[in-house]
Design brief:
alpha/beta; six-stranded parallel sheet; 21 strands
Length: 362
Amino acid sequence: MPSIDGTILTAAGWRRGRLNHERLIRSVEGTPTGLPEPPFVIPGFVDLHVHGGGGADVMAGADAIRTTLRTHARHGTTSLLATTVTAPVEEIDDVLAAAAMVEARRESGEAALLGVHLEGPFLNPDKLGAQPPYARPAEPALLERWCATNLVRVMTLAPEVDVEGALRTILNAHGARAQLGHTLCRHDEARTALEAGMGVTHLFNAMTALDHRAPGAAGAALAFAEWAEVIPDLIHVEATAIHAARRAIPKLYGITDATAGAGMPDGAYPLGRYTAHKAKGAMRLEDGTLAGSALTMDQALRNLVAIGLALDDAATRLSTLPAQWLGLGDRGWIAPAMRADLVILDDALQVRRVLVAGEDVR
């Protein structure tokens, strides 16, 4: 039976010893320790917001989704959601069809595809950021059709587009998560949505900002959200704001919001019908608007540790919490009978091995 020696981050804390596995984790042996030493064995990252990577944009179809899965697997992501941009209905239909083909047959070297995160099209047309201009009014029948594919796991929508909560109701009925984002809603509208169970898409970005007399969606999130995404590339959100969010939101978790430039050199890359340019670690449109990120989850981990989070806290926010938000019971932490989705790190927190269901992919 294959085994891995190191300091292992289990659900009960760090343990110095050996992890035995096949496709699933069979056992974790060793003794608890408060002083973890490399190599570190942590749960594989679970990224719930990925537009692309390795030069590929998931809107381009099955081959692009597979390239994205392989690219992010090399950086420690063992499960992810392919994330759309706002687009015409037929293009979203095509992405769902492509995702169905990919999900039906995982290929060697790929992260597991968990399904699709629909970022739009039910967004505020005046707060699209780098989203293409295809926002639509709420169409419950259309969302019902998309959810009937059983591929939609998360949807980002603007609460002011879904005043009666019809879209939320459909998502809940299909076991999908609704998240507020790309919104100009007032703080009271955001509070209502959050108290109804919504999460938050890329906190602080593409939403009404916090002012002490007009708290906006960001202020409502800090006051009332239980779950929220944040992009820890230290470009979208400054370190102090991440710390503030971590203190305020119990289950703040990291995502990459990665676009096609992730894992690639500087240059021009597709983002839906737009082109984004990678330079100085960021992805931007021609006018300078941030266009997703060039982040990978291993760099997200190093960034969180660099700003002061303990390694186990950082890993939990990139693995365990996103898995729990989706209700996944078979991954996101290390314990017997869980999937052997694992990342092995050296003393500099560089990725040395990645296992997806026990298969080495790096």
